[in-house]
Design a protein that fits this description.
2 copies of one chain form a homodimer.
Chain A (H helix, E strand, L loop, with lengths): L8 H5 L1 H11 L5 H4 L4 H4 L13 H26 L7 H17 L5 H9 L3 H21 L2 H27 L7
Amino acid sequence: MEFSTILPLSQLSCFIPKTCTLIRAHPFKPWRHRNSKPARFRCQKMYVPGFGEASPEKKAAKNMHNFFTYIAVRIVGAQLEVPSVPSCYSYNTEAHKDLLEFLDKNSLNDGDKFCAALMRESPRHKGLAMRILEVRSSYCKKDFEWDNLQRLASKMADESNTRIMRDYVLETSHDPKID
Amino acid sequence: MEFSTILPLSQLSCFIPKTCTLIRAHPFKPWRHRNSKPARFRCQKMYVPGFGEASPEKKAAKNMHNFFTYIAVRIVGAQLEVPSVPSCYSYNTEAHKDLLEFLDKNSLNDGDKFCAALMRESPRHKGLAMRILEVRSSYCKKDFEWDNLQRLASKMADESNTRIMRDYVLETSHDPKID
């Protein structure tokens, strides 16, 4: 299974109109005169437009929050798949089936909405929802390696940039020995 | 503009079939006997299935990498929108137009693919692509507040869990004074 996306088309489609509105509204006014948050500039960071009252960190946190719900569903699904204690085999089997059936009918795109709907399905589903809420919180706080995420993202930025530039050079340059 | 997603439908649709395959393949074999990475278990972390050779951190890093490309496009777009140095007004205006037109025709869902295509469009587009590559790397390493991301995600987990449970209780319980 792949966890790959990021930008839904709905966002990208509204990127351009908003930028154009800004151009029309302030054709010659530098951005630093338009922004109401001077803190960003005092700390010498690049200005990121379009996040309104939020911040890129908050948007990314929302994204990670949904990712943790998805992870929690997978963790709980795996735990229920095969019972570790034989006596609860029957509960686990039933609950696993309930979870799969619910997943079939409900989108996990919005983690909170998914959990709220699961909680209202039946008393057994409510138990599953409570477990998923607990697991996603615990996974976020204890298991997920945040330092590793930062390290991997930095490494990916370097490697991807090098690869993109190398591919371009290889594609556009000619080897004089071949010509 | 919103940056909200996470899970593309393509992932979710393959969640259940893969789980089912596992069930069929190993109906009674506990997961700890099936996994080839014992490190996860020695450190007492919850088992997260379905990431193969990768890890949740790597998937999240890929996600963040695409997010940083999106952020870099916004940063460069804002920088070009109004020139800080009057003499480069003409270049900025033209480049800004180029960027908007390219965004109109090309998806930003895959950041690397977007940059590679931008680089091949024309020499001026190549300059834009190089700038976006530089900005996304710099933003990832210097500007993005990783600690803040972790803090916000933890806070979001707590607040969302509380809100979901509170809403459920409010919805299902009856106030004896009203009845």
